[in-house]
Amino acid sequence: MVKRAVEANFDGLVGPTHNYAGLSWGNVASRSNVNSVANPREAALQGLAKMKRLADRGYVQGVLPPHERPHLPTLRALGFTGNEGQVLSAVARTDPALLAAVSSASAMWTANAATVSPSADTADQRVHLTPANLSAKFHRSIEHRVTGRALKAIFSDERYFAHHSALPSVSQFGDEGAANHTRLCGDYGAPGVELFVYGQEAFNDAAPAPVRFPARQTLEASRAIARLHGLTDRHAVFAQQNPAAIDAGVFHNDVIAVGNGNCLFYHEQAFLHESQVLTDLRERLTGVELAAVRVSSDQVPIADAVSSYLFNSQLLASADGMLLAVPGECREVASVSRYLDTLVQSGGPITAVEVFDVKQSMRNGGGPACLRLRVVLNEDELRAINQNVILTDALYERLTVWVKAHYRDAMSQQDLADPMLLDEVRKALDELTAILGLGSIYDFQM
Ligand SMILES: N=C(N)NCCC[C@H](NC(=O)CCC(=O)O)C(=O)O
Questions:
Q1: Which residues form the pocket of ligand 1, taking CB atoms under 6 Å from any ligand atom?
Q2: Which of ligand 1's atoms lies nearest the C-alpha of 104?
Q3: Tell me, what does this protein do in biology (predicted)?
Q4: Residue 388 φ/ψ, nearest 5 degrees
Q5: Is the residue at 352 inside a domain?
Q6: I want to staple 438 with a disulfide (CB 3.0 to 4.6 A). Which of 72, 174, 296, 433 is the partner?
């Protein structure tokens, strides 16, 4: 019998050190906004406003905490010594780029936090979670331990949830989590098909690969995740991302495709073998027809898809079709805005478009879909999770007050060296783990 299930969205709360350091080669926005002054307070409030609007519409909305930054344990592991003030001033003086890397608030993009397989798809009928090693970028490779602790503090009941360690942190097993993973299904509680999109094969030099920008996800990593999660071939499809798209700035598949339920919304240049992907999905989807919404380059050139983040929208099931929650930038790019007007009138599965302002995150290449990790949960599983992280009116109010009390409204590269910042961050996070009932998850709390 199919259990009733929902898709919950767990958004990353933007951290107090949100800044623009240009850390992500291959991510156009990150590199174009390097050194501009960020506003962490506004960023966190924009993220909370998005969560609140979706919670108000009845979607189950959860919150994932930011990480401790700057991350002193990483600096110590790299040979910096002395007290904390001395470590910070030494790294600021000798290696400001390293200070920026260990200060990034990049854990906000929780589409990269983990890959999650719902219990309806897995061999042992538990929800499986694997934090992404994010080994392609140093600043992100230091996220997975704390991500794993946060996920265990939320999905703690072992009867329902199975946690795996991140894959080996080397490029051959580069894993970027749910940003390269889409689940298609009929009812959420029914078995679905998990589409794993990879950028490159690590152990096959002859296979196609991008030439300009790095492929962050390998086939080997995707296959390992599917094995760990106990997915059979019936439940998994592996597809290569078009290398030309990666070279055009599509550093994750969720910058060029998004799926939910039976609907796959994608750009014609998303996949290397488009028709094979559709055939593989159609063969495995049961009880429902795939509704493919294909956007051509004539309608939206790939450069416009990248600058607007059209495909980094959230695709959400609503009572009368699919709702596309787009970033405001989509209305600033003429081809995309025109396309969206025709989309809702086309009679297709996407029946509504709503605009969300997440500009602070967008300037680092993170749209609405980057900011959330989707977890399909049946009623028992939803009841079993830590309820303190579910966004209610009261939690929204509390977090808004918390952000206003602890966050600065300007963050430049120079500010990262301020020893006061580390104290501010820890004080804020200590309070946050109490609000969210997470216990001790940060290194400074251990
Ligand atoms: N597409 C998804 N799912 N996520 C977007 C992640 C953006 C992130 N940007 C950054 O890490 C930039 C940080 C800086 O430059 O300061 C990244 O490139 O990994």
A1: 19-24, 27, 30, 104, 106, 109, 111-112, 137, 140, 179, 252, 254-255, 364-366, 370
A2: 16
A3: Catalyzes the hydrolysis of N(2)-succinylarginine into N(2)-succinylornithine, ammonia and CO(2).
A4: -65, -15
A5: no
A6: 433
Tell me, what's the pLDDT at 292?
98
Nearest CA to ligand 1 atom 19: 24
Establish if 101 belongs to a structural domain.
Answer: yes
ipTM: 0.99
Residue 366 lies in a domain: no
Q: How many domains does the chain have?
A: 1
- Is residue 370 part of the annotated active site? The answer reads yes
Domain that holds residue 407: 1-109+371-446
- The confidence score (pLDDT) of residue 44 equals 98
Sign of the torsion angle spanned by Cα atoms 139, 229, 372, 51: negative
- Tell me what pLDDT residue 1 has: 80
Q: Distances in Å between the alpha carbon of 41 and those of 14, 66, 356, 427? A: 9, 13, 17, 16
pTM metric for this prediction: 0.98
What is the pLDDT of the chain when averaged over all its residues? 97
Probe residue for ligand 1, chosen from 9, 17, 19, 27 as the CB with the greatest number of ligand atoms within 8 Å = 27
